[in-house]
Specification:
The chain is α+β, with helices and mostly antiparallel strands. It is built from 6 helices and 2 strands; from the N terminus they run H-H-H-H-H-H-E-E. The protein is globular, with a radius of gyration of 18 Å.
Length: 147
């Protein structure tokens, strides 16, 4: 048993039952973005959340325990993603990463955007030329400290 095996079981059950991540999130009581990340092994659930997810996906007591273990985050199978959709985010950072960095430093000073104190929203944006993906990323600014 491993966290990867639990993630695979969750995905398999989701597909076989025709579930949507937004439905799972509604039952957990958190955003679809965070709950999806948790179900994919990137976030830690508390006992109540793990119980709800376990009920939805028919997980055993042992499998539910894995949902409460701090994950190994950022675990893509390759350094350069091969999945076309994920690769586009890699490409986005390759092209605009220095722009993000320059503008954040200009606006906030020397520091980083937190991926811990963070939230995300993903929505469909209607457009007559083809629907658009609208992703809002919001992370707390953390300045570097002197000591």
């Amino acid at each position: 048993m491993s966290r990867i095996a639990v993630t695979e079981k969750i995905i398999s059950t989701k597909v076989s039952r025709g579930l949507k991540w937004s439905e799972v999130a509604q039952k957990v009581g958190l955003s679809k973005e965070w709950v999806t990340a948790a179900c994919l092994g990137q976030m830690t659930l508390n006992a109540d959340q793990a119980a709800t997810v376990g009920d939805i996906f028919g997980l055993t007591v042992d499998e539910r325990q894995w949902l409460m273990v701090a994950p190994y985050r950022g675990s893509l199978p390759t350094s350069v993603p091969s999945d076309p959709l994920i690769y586009r985010f890699y490409e986005l950072i390759s092209v605009y990463g220095s722009t993000f960095k320059e503008l954040i430093h200009e606006e906030f000073g020397d520091g980083i955007m937190s991926a811990i104190d963070f939230r995300m929203d993903l929505a469909r944006e209607s457009d007559p030329h083809g629907d658009r993906v609208n992703i809002t990323l919001s992370g707390k600014f953390l300045p570097y400290k002197t000591y």
